[in-house]
Amino acid sequence: MLMSKKEIQNIDLKNFNEGDAQSFLIDVIHKFSQDIIAAETTSDIFHVLVNDVAKQMALKDCVLYKVNREIKQIEQIATYRENKFEDGQIKNALTLNFGEGHAGLVAETGSSLLIKDVSKSKNYKFDVSMAGSELVIPVKINDEVYAVISSEHPEPYFYTEYHLKLWDVIASIATGALVKIHKKEELVKIQHRLEDLLDKQSEDLDKAIEMLSDQFAKLKQYREKQETLMQEIHHRVTNNLQIISSILRLYMSKDTVESVNTLNAIHNRVQVMALIHQNIYKTMESGMVGLNSYMSDLLNYLKSTTSRFVIGTGYEVEINFLSIDVLVSFGLYITEVFYMWVDLADQHGLEAIELRFEVLKTKDERSFEINIYDQSKIALFENVDFHSTDEMGCILISALTDQLEGELSYTYENQNRIRLTIMS
Predict the structure, then answer these.
(1) pLDDT of residue 5
(2) What pTM did the predictor assign?
(3) Which of 319, 343, 361 is nearest to 397 (CA)?
Protein backbone atom coordinates (compact mmCIF):
# COMPACT_ATOMS: atom_id res chain seq x y z
CA MET A 1 0.00 0.00 0.00
CA LEU A 2 1.28 3.47 -0.90
CA MET A 3 2.23 5.76 2.00
CA SER A 4 0.80 9.24 2.48
CA LYS A 5 3.05 12.31 2.55
CA LYS A 6 2.74 12.45 6.35
CA GLU A 7 3.90 8.84 6.59
CA ILE A 8 6.87 9.59 4.37
CA GLN A 9 8.02 12.41 6.66
CA ASN A 10 10.77 11.62 9.22
CA ILE A 11 11.62 8.26 7.67
CA ASP A 12 15.33 7.48 7.82
CA LEU A 13 16.49 5.55 4.73
CA LYS A 14 19.57 4.34 6.61
CA ASN A 15 17.40 1.96 8.65
CA PHE A 16 15.67 0.42 5.58
CA ASN A 17 16.58 -2.85 3.97
CA GLU A 18 16.79 -2.87 0.17
CA GLY A 19 13.20 -4.04 -0.37
CA ASP A 20 11.70 -1.46 1.98
CA ALA A 21 13.87 1.26 0.46
CA GLN A 22 12.70 0.41 -3.05
CA SER A 23 9.06 0.52 -1.91
CA PHE A 24 9.68 3.83 -0.18
CA LEU A 25 11.26 5.32 -3.31
CA ILE A 26 8.24 4.32 -5.38
CA ASP A 27 5.88 5.94 -2.86
CA VAL A 28 7.83 9.21 -2.81
CA ILE A 29 8.10 9.36 -6.62
CA HIS A 30 4.38 8.67 -6.98
CA LYS A 31 3.42 11.36 -4.45
CA PHE A 32 5.54 14.17 -5.84
CA SER A 33 5.62 13.37 -9.57
CA GLN A 34 1.95 14.34 -9.83
CA ASP A 35 2.68 17.71 -8.19
CA ILE A 36 5.64 18.33 -10.50
CA ILE A 37 3.75 17.39 -13.67
CA ALA A 38 0.79 19.55 -12.63
CA ALA A 39 2.98 22.62 -12.10
CA GLU A 40 2.21 25.48 -14.47
CA THR A 41 5.35 27.59 -14.07
CA THR A 42 9.07 27.09 -13.49
CA SER A 43 8.67 28.65 -10.03
CA ASP A 44 5.99 26.08 -9.17
CA ILE A 45 8.38 23.24 -10.04
CA PHE A 46 11.21 24.80 -8.02
CA HIS A 47 8.84 25.17 -5.05
CA VAL A 48 7.87 21.47 -5.19
CA LEU A 49 11.52 20.39 -5.39
CA VAL A 50 12.95 22.66 -2.72
CA ASN A 51 10.05 22.85 -0.29
CA ASP A 52 7.59 19.98 -0.65
CA VAL A 53 9.99 17.14 -1.42
CA ALA A 54 12.62 18.33 1.07
CA LYS A 55 10.05 18.90 3.80
CA GLN A 56 8.36 15.56 3.36
CA MET A 57 11.75 13.82 3.27
CA ALA A 58 12.61 15.46 6.61
CA LEU A 59 15.67 17.11 5.10
CA LYS A 60 17.36 19.87 7.05
CA ASP A 61 18.42 21.84 4.02
CA CYS A 62 17.68 22.11 0.29
CA VAL A 63 18.87 24.83 -2.09
CA LEU A 64 18.26 25.29 -5.82
CA TYR A 65 20.72 27.14 -8.02
CA LYS A 66 19.78 28.57 -11.44
CA VAL A 67 22.49 28.14 -14.08
CA ASN A 68 23.68 31.07 -16.22
CA ARG A 69 25.72 29.46 -19.00
CA GLU A 70 26.69 32.75 -20.63
CA ILE A 71 28.75 33.89 -17.63
CA LYS A 72 29.32 30.34 -16.29
CA GLN A 73 27.82 31.00 -12.88
CA ILE A 74 25.06 29.60 -10.67
CA GLU A 75 22.95 31.59 -8.22
CA GLN A 76 20.67 30.52 -5.37
CA ILE A 77 17.05 31.30 -6.27
CA ALA A 78 15.08 28.94 -3.99
CA THR A 79 15.80 27.36 -0.60
CA TYR A 80 14.33 25.25 2.16
CA ARG A 81 16.28 26.63 5.10
CA GLU A 82 14.65 28.93 7.65
CA ASN A 83 17.74 30.96 8.48
CA LYS A 84 18.26 31.76 4.74
CA PHE A 85 15.06 33.83 4.50
CA GLU A 86 14.47 37.46 5.38
CA ASP A 87 11.28 39.30 4.46
CA GLY A 88 10.37 36.56 1.99
CA GLN A 89 13.69 36.85 0.14
CA ILE A 90 16.83 34.67 0.18
CA LYS A 91 19.35 36.30 2.49
CA ASN A 92 22.87 36.57 1.10
CA ALA A 93 22.06 34.42 -1.93
CA LEU A 94 25.19 32.52 -2.83
CA THR A 95 26.68 32.84 -6.33
CA LEU A 96 29.27 30.31 -7.49
CA ASN A 97 31.39 30.00 -10.61
CA PHE A 98 31.43 26.80 -12.60
CA GLY A 99 33.69 24.35 -10.75
CA GLU A 100 33.44 26.26 -7.47
CA GLY A 101 32.06 24.21 -4.58
CA HIS A 102 30.15 20.99 -5.04
CA ALA A 103 27.19 22.76 -6.74
CA GLY A 104 29.51 24.62 -9.15
CA LEU A 105 31.27 21.34 -9.98
CA VAL A 106 27.96 19.61 -10.80
CA ALA A 107 26.93 22.60 -12.97
CA GLU A 108 30.20 22.19 -14.88
CA THR A 109 30.26 18.37 -15.21
CA GLY A 110 26.54 17.56 -15.26
CA SER A 111 27.06 14.57 -12.94
CA SER A 112 25.41 14.00 -9.54
CA LEU A 113 27.55 14.05 -6.39
CA LEU A 114 27.04 12.14 -3.13
CA ILE A 115 29.52 13.44 -0.52
CA LYS A 116 29.10 11.30 2.57
CA ASP A 117 31.65 13.29 4.59
CA VAL A 118 32.26 16.86 3.40
CA SER A 119 35.25 17.23 5.76
CA LYS A 120 37.17 15.02 3.38
CA SER A 121 36.26 17.12 0.31
CA LYS A 122 38.46 20.03 -0.74
CA ASN A 123 35.59 21.42 -2.93
CA TYR A 124 33.17 22.01 -0.07
CA LYS A 125 31.84 25.62 0.02
CA PHE A 126 30.62 26.86 3.41
CA ASP A 127 27.27 28.68 3.30
CA VAL A 128 25.33 29.21 6.54
CA SER A 129 26.33 26.31 8.78
CA MET A 130 28.83 23.51 8.59
CA ALA A 131 27.54 20.38 6.86
CA GLY A 132 28.40 16.76 7.53
CA SER A 133 27.23 15.31 4.22
CA GLU A 134 25.88 16.75 0.97
CA LEU A 135 23.86 15.54 -2.00
CA VAL A 136 24.03 17.54 -5.30
CA ILE A 137 21.77 16.73 -8.29
CA PRO A 138 21.73 18.41 -11.76
CA VAL A 139 18.43 19.22 -13.52
CA LYS A 140 19.10 18.99 -17.25
CA ILE A 141 17.30 20.20 -20.36
CA ASN A 142 18.59 18.99 -23.72
CA ASP A 143 21.67 17.50 -22.00
CA GLU A 144 22.63 20.88 -20.56
CA VAL A 145 22.47 21.67 -16.83
CA TYR A 146 19.55 24.05 -16.28
CA ALA A 147 19.54 24.04 -12.45
CA VAL A 148 21.37 22.38 -9.55
CA ILE A 149 19.75 20.99 -6.37
CA SER A 150 21.96 20.87 -3.26
CA SER A 151 20.92 19.33 0.07
CA GLU A 152 23.22 19.45 3.13
CA HIS A 153 22.85 17.57 6.40
CA PRO A 154 24.81 18.17 9.60
CA GLU A 155 25.47 14.43 10.05
CA PRO A 156 28.15 12.70 8.01
CA TYR A 157 26.97 9.67 6.05
CA PHE A 158 23.34 10.79 6.30
CA TYR A 159 22.72 10.56 2.54
CA THR A 160 22.68 7.12 0.90
CA GLU A 161 22.50 5.76 -2.60
CA TYR A 162 18.73 5.60 -2.18
CA HIS A 163 18.61 9.38 -1.65
CA LEU A 164 20.68 9.75 -4.81
CA LYS A 165 18.39 7.46 -6.84
CA LEU A 166 15.29 9.24 -5.53
CA TRP A 167 16.55 12.72 -6.41
CA ASP A 168 17.80 11.57 -9.82
CA VAL A 169 14.31 10.26 -10.68
CA ILE A 170 12.57 13.37 -9.33
CA ALA A 171 15.02 15.60 -11.25
CA SER A 172 14.27 13.62 -14.42
CA ILE A 173 10.52 14.14 -13.90
CA ALA A 174 11.16 17.83 -13.29
CA THR A 175 13.11 18.01 -16.57
CA GLY A 176 10.10 16.73 -18.53
CA ALA A 177 7.82 19.22 -16.81
CA LEU A 178 10.26 22.10 -17.40
CA VAL A 179 10.51 21.27 -21.10
CA LYS A 180 6.73 21.29 -21.36
CA ILE A 181 6.49 24.63 -19.56
CA HIS A 182 9.28 26.17 -21.66
CA LYS A 183 7.54 25.10 -24.86
CA LYS A 184 4.29 26.54 -23.57
CA GLU A 185 6.02 29.80 -22.60
CA GLU A 186 7.70 29.96 -26.01
CA LEU A 187 4.36 29.43 -27.71
CA VAL A 188 2.89 32.20 -25.56
CA LYS A 189 5.79 34.50 -26.58
CA ILE A 190 5.23 33.61 -30.24
CA GLN A 191 1.54 34.23 -29.79
CA HIS A 192 2.23 37.65 -28.26
CA ARG A 193 4.68 38.51 -31.05
CA LEU A 194 2.12 37.48 -33.65
CA GLU A 195 -0.57 39.48 -31.88
CA ASP A 196 1.73 42.51 -31.76
CA LEU A 197 2.58 42.00 -35.42
CA LEU A 198 -1.09 41.67 -36.35
CA ASP A 199 -1.90 44.77 -34.31
CA LYS A 200 0.90 46.65 -36.09
CA GLN A 201 -0.18 45.40 -39.50
CA SER A 202 -3.80 46.16 -38.67
CA GLU A 203 -2.80 49.67 -37.63
CA ASP A 204 -0.74 50.11 -40.82
CA LEU A 205 -3.62 48.74 -42.87
CA ASP A 206 -6.04 51.15 -41.23
CA LYS A 207 -3.68 54.03 -42.03
CA ALA A 208 -3.29 52.82 -45.62
CA ILE A 209 -7.06 52.48 -46.02
CA GLU A 210 -7.56 55.96 -44.57
CA MET A 211 -4.91 57.40 -46.90
CA LEU A 212 -6.37 55.59 -49.93
CA SER A 213 -9.87 56.75 -48.97
CA ASP A 214 -8.65 60.34 -48.84
CA GLN A 215 -6.87 59.97 -52.18
CA PHE A 216 -9.95 58.32 -53.70
CA ALA A 217 -12.17 61.14 -52.43
CA LYS A 218 -9.80 63.73 -53.92
CA LEU A 219 -9.58 61.86 -57.24
CA LYS A 220 -13.35 61.47 -57.32
CA GLN A 221 -13.77 65.19 -56.71
CA TYR A 222 -11.17 65.98 -59.39
CA ARG A 223 -12.84 63.61 -61.85
CA GLU A 224 -16.24 65.14 -61.21
CA LYS A 225 -14.80 68.58 -61.90
CA GLN A 226 -13.09 67.25 -65.04
CA GLU A 227 -16.30 65.64 -66.27
CA THR A 228 -18.21 68.85 -65.64
CA LEU A 229 -15.58 70.80 -67.56
CA MET A 230 -15.59 68.30 -70.44
CA GLN A 231 -19.36 68.41 -70.63
CA GLU A 232 -19.25 72.19 -70.74
CA ILE A 233 -16.59 72.11 -73.50
CA HIS A 234 -18.58 69.49 -75.43
CA HIS A 235 -21.77 71.56 -75.28
CA ARG A 236 -19.97 74.71 -76.35
CA VAL A 237 -18.18 73.00 -79.26
CA THR A 238 -21.44 71.34 -80.34
CA ASN A 239 -23.30 74.65 -80.16
CA ASN A 240 -20.56 76.43 -82.13
CA LEU A 241 -20.59 73.77 -84.85
CA GLN A 242 -24.38 73.99 -85.06
CA ILE A 243 -24.16 77.77 -85.37
CA ILE A 244 -21.57 77.43 -88.17
CA SER A 245 -23.72 74.81 -89.90
CA SER A 246 -26.82 77.05 -89.64
CA ILE A 247 -24.92 80.05 -91.05
CA LEU A 248 -23.68 77.93 -93.99
CA ARG A 249 -27.20 76.70 -94.72
CA LEU A 250 -28.45 80.31 -94.63
CA TYR A 251 -25.83 81.33 -97.24
CA MET A 252 -26.56 78.22 -99.32
CA SER A 253 -30.22 79.19 -99.58
CA LYS A 254 -29.35 82.62 -101.08
CA ASP A 255 -26.14 82.15 -103.10
CA THR A 256 -25.32 80.97 -106.65
CA VAL A 257 -25.09 77.32 -107.61
CA GLU A 258 -21.29 77.36 -107.60
CA SER A 259 -21.18 79.05 -104.23
CA VAL A 260 -23.80 76.65 -102.90
CA ASN A 261 -21.64 73.68 -103.91
CA THR A 262 -18.63 75.23 -102.19
CA LEU A 263 -20.60 76.03 -99.07
CA ASN A 264 -22.16 72.54 -99.12
CA ALA A 265 -18.69 70.97 -99.20
CA ILE A 266 -17.65 73.13 -96.26
CA HIS A 267 -20.89 72.27 -94.45
CA ASN A 268 -20.29 68.55 -94.93
CA ARG A 269 -16.80 68.82 -93.48
CA VAL A 270 -18.12 70.75 -90.48
CA GLN A 271 -20.59 67.93 -89.91
CA VAL A 272 -17.76 65.37 -90.14
CA MET A 273 -15.88 67.35 -87.50
CA ALA A 274 -19.00 67.32 -85.34
CA LEU A 275 -19.28 63.55 -85.81
CA ILE A 276 -15.64 63.07 -84.84
CA HIS A 277 -16.12 65.24 -81.80
CA GLN A 278 -19.21 63.27 -80.77
CA ASN A 279 -17.29 59.95 -80.91
CA ILE A 280 -14.40 61.45 -78.98
CA TYR A 281 -16.75 62.67 -76.26
CA LYS A 282 -18.36 59.23 -75.90
CA THR A 283 -14.98 57.60 -75.16
CA MET A 284 -13.04 60.46 -73.60
CA GLU A 285 -12.40 58.48 -70.38
CA SER A 286 -10.11 55.96 -72.09
CA GLY A 287 -8.52 58.34 -74.58
CA MET A 288 -9.18 55.76 -77.33
CA VAL A 289 -12.08 55.64 -79.81
CA GLY A 290 -13.64 52.39 -81.02
CA LEU A 291 -12.90 52.34 -84.77
CA ASN A 292 -15.62 49.93 -85.87
CA SER A 293 -18.57 52.03 -84.65
CA TYR A 294 -16.89 55.23 -85.81
CA MET A 295 -16.41 53.90 -89.38
CA SER A 296 -20.06 52.86 -89.49
CA ASP A 297 -21.26 56.33 -88.38
CA LEU A 298 -18.88 58.16 -90.71
CA LEU A 299 -19.69 56.18 -93.88
CA ASN A 300 -23.43 56.36 -93.23
CA TYR A 301 -23.18 60.13 -92.93
CA LEU A 302 -20.99 60.53 -96.04
CA LYS A 303 -23.43 58.48 -98.15
CA SER A 304 -26.33 60.60 -96.91
CA THR A 305 -24.68 63.78 -98.25
CA THR A 306 -24.47 62.56 -101.88
CA SER A 307 -27.65 62.01 -103.91
CA ARG A 308 -26.28 62.29 -107.48
CA PHE A 309 -25.97 58.53 -107.96
CA VAL A 310 -25.97 55.26 -106.08
CA ILE A 311 -23.05 54.74 -103.68
CA GLY A 312 -22.47 51.48 -101.91
CA THR A 313 -19.94 51.13 -99.11
CA GLY A 314 -18.45 48.38 -97.05
CA TYR A 315 -15.60 48.23 -94.58
CA GLU A 316 -13.29 45.88 -92.74
CA VAL A 317 -11.46 46.89 -89.57
CA GLU A 318 -8.60 44.98 -87.92
CA ILE A 319 -7.62 47.84 -85.64
CA ASN A 320 -9.98 48.07 -82.68
CA PHE A 321 -9.07 51.50 -81.37
CA LEU A 322 -7.38 54.70 -82.48
CA SER A 323 -6.04 57.45 -80.28
CA ILE A 324 -7.82 60.79 -80.33
CA ASP A 325 -4.78 62.46 -81.96
CA VAL A 326 -4.92 60.08 -84.93
CA LEU A 327 -8.72 59.93 -85.19
CA VAL A 328 -9.29 63.53 -86.30
CA SER A 329 -6.83 63.35 -89.20
CA PHE A 330 -8.03 59.82 -90.03
CA GLY A 331 -11.67 60.95 -90.29
CA LEU A 332 -10.84 63.97 -92.42
CA TYR A 333 -8.67 61.83 -94.72
CA ILE A 334 -11.51 59.33 -95.29
CA THR A 335 -13.87 62.26 -95.97
CA GLU A 336 -11.63 63.98 -98.55
CA VAL A 337 -10.88 60.74 -100.42
CA PHE A 338 -14.57 59.85 -100.43
CA TYR A 339 -15.66 63.19 -101.93
CA MET A 340 -12.82 63.17 -104.48
CA TRP A 341 -13.85 59.64 -105.55
CA VAL A 342 -17.46 60.76 -105.95
CA ASP A 343 -16.45 63.85 -107.97
CA LEU A 344 -14.20 61.82 -110.32
CA ALA A 345 -16.88 59.17 -110.78
CA ASP A 346 -19.37 61.92 -111.63
CA GLN A 347 -16.92 63.50 -114.10
CA HIS A 348 -16.50 60.13 -115.84
CA GLY A 349 -20.27 59.71 -116.17
CA LEU A 350 -20.63 56.78 -113.77
CA GLU A 351 -24.11 56.21 -112.35
CA ALA A 352 -23.05 54.13 -109.36
CA ILE A 353 -19.92 53.18 -107.48
CA GLU A 354 -19.14 50.59 -104.82
CA LEU A 355 -16.42 51.65 -102.36
CA ARG A 356 -14.62 49.37 -99.93
CA PHE A 357 -12.70 50.67 -96.91
CA GLU A 358 -10.11 48.59 -95.07
CA VAL A 359 -8.09 49.38 -91.96
CA LEU A 360 -5.62 46.50 -91.75
CA LYS A 361 -2.62 45.45 -89.72
CA THR A 362 0.69 45.07 -91.55
CA LYS A 363 3.52 42.59 -91.07
CA ASP A 364 5.36 45.38 -89.32
CA GLU A 365 3.65 45.64 -85.93
CA ARG A 366 4.52 49.34 -85.78
CA SER A 367 2.26 50.31 -88.69
CA PHE A 368 -1.19 49.81 -90.24
CA GLU A 369 -2.70 50.69 -93.61
CA ILE A 370 -5.90 52.26 -94.95
CA ASN A 371 -7.06 50.78 -98.26
CA ILE A 372 -9.87 52.32 -100.32
CA TYR A 373 -10.85 50.66 -103.60
CA ASP A 374 -13.72 50.11 -106.05
CA GLN A 375 -14.60 47.74 -108.91
CA SER A 376 -14.64 50.43 -111.60
CA LYS A 377 -13.36 49.65 -115.12
CA ILE A 378 -12.10 53.22 -115.41
CA ALA A 379 -8.85 54.49 -113.90
CA LEU A 380 -10.36 57.45 -112.11
CA PHE A 381 -7.12 58.74 -110.54
CA GLU A 382 -4.89 58.25 -113.57
CA ASN A 383 -4.33 61.99 -114.06
CA VAL A 384 -4.40 62.96 -110.40
CA ASP A 385 -1.18 64.07 -108.71
CA PHE A 386 -1.79 64.34 -104.96
CA HIS A 387 1.49 66.14 -104.28
CA SER A 388 1.85 68.81 -107.02
CA THR A 389 -1.68 69.84 -108.04
CA ASP A 390 -3.40 73.04 -106.91
CA GLU A 391 -6.77 71.29 -106.55
CA MET A 392 -8.09 71.79 -103.02
CA GLY A 393 -8.97 68.12 -102.40
CA CYS A 394 -5.45 66.95 -103.35
CA ILE A 395 -3.87 69.64 -101.17
CA LEU A 396 -5.97 68.50 -98.19
CA ILE A 397 -5.23 64.80 -98.76
CA SER A 398 -1.51 65.50 -99.07
CA ALA A 399 -1.53 67.64 -95.91
CA LEU A 400 -3.45 64.97 -93.94
CA THR A 401 -1.02 62.29 -95.19
CA ASP A 402 1.88 64.32 -93.82
CA GLN A 403 0.02 64.92 -90.55
CA LEU A 404 -0.50 61.14 -90.15
CA GLU A 405 3.16 60.56 -91.09
CA GLY A 406 1.97 58.15 -93.78
CA GLU A 407 2.96 57.05 -97.28
CA LEU A 408 0.29 57.43 -100.00
CA SER A 409 0.15 55.33 -103.18
CA TYR A 410 -2.34 54.76 -106.03
CA THR A 411 -2.66 51.70 -108.30
CA TYR A 412 -5.11 50.49 -110.90
CA GLU A 413 -5.52 46.80 -111.79
CA ASN A 414 -9.19 46.41 -112.75
CA GLN A 415 -9.93 48.53 -109.70
CA ASN A 416 -8.90 51.89 -108.35
CA ARG A 417 -6.95 51.47 -105.09
CA ILE A 418 -5.51 54.12 -102.81
CA ARG A 419 -3.30 52.87 -99.98
CA LEU A 420 -2.11 54.94 -97.02
CA THR A 421 0.45 53.29 -94.74
CA ILE A 422 0.66 54.86 -91.27
CA MET A 423 3.26 54.31 -88.58
CA SER A 424 1.27 53.59 -85.40
Answers:
(1) 43
(2) 0.46
(3) 343
